[in-house]
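User: Sequence in, structure out. Go.
Assistant: Echoing your sequence, followed by the structure tokens.
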Amino acid sequence: MTENTNSNTQKWYASWFDTPFYHILYKDRDYQEAQHFMDNITSYLNLPDEAKILDLACGKGRHSIYLNSLGYDVTGADLSENSITEAKKWENESLHFKVHDMRNKCKDKYDAIFNLFTSFGYFENDADNLTTLKAIHSSLTDTGFACIDFMNVDNVIENLVPEETKTVENIDFHIKRYVKDNHIFKEIDFTFEEEKYHFTEKVQALRLADFEQMMEEAGIYLLDIFGNYKLQKFFKNQSERLIMIFK
């Protein structure tokens, strides 16, 4: 039995997010709730008909597809080539997908850029967070808005489940969670076809003050903050999410 230890630690997110196992583990995410969130956020932003939207870190494109169904011209971008290959099956005249590193500026300008469901803070180098914010900011039209939907770190840490096993498609995912060096870690171990796998997710424990500091440095104007997908007020300890609207 061999063990996949995901040795390329500098790009762990590229390899883990590119595996089919990542999508298996998270297949039961609440997409209906996600769609309600996108209904709420597009209504709140009062986007024009056929607005150009960038879904940054789009995965297999489920949310891009939904946004496109609302009538918007949508581009889904993700670092995972496997995910983009899958998403491209859904392309049409107003829905496109591309492999893209969010640290890089886009050639096109967008009326809205969405970075949804804690798809930020995975880089090994902290400076890449600021680079990413600057790239998002420079890819907006003059009247455009961006939205980062991040976890509320204080709430997550307070409710952290140290260990659990999730069985999905007959695979037992053994999960350990802990906080170390201002990162939230998730160790994932499982066996598939007699081969052992080990992956580590780690995301920076970024709080509102951290984002505010980076945004100020990037010349970004933070317009509004919400604490859940219903766009209700943010409370530091109770809120499930940290949703930031900026331009």
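User: And one key feature?
Assistant: The chain has eight helices and twelve strands.
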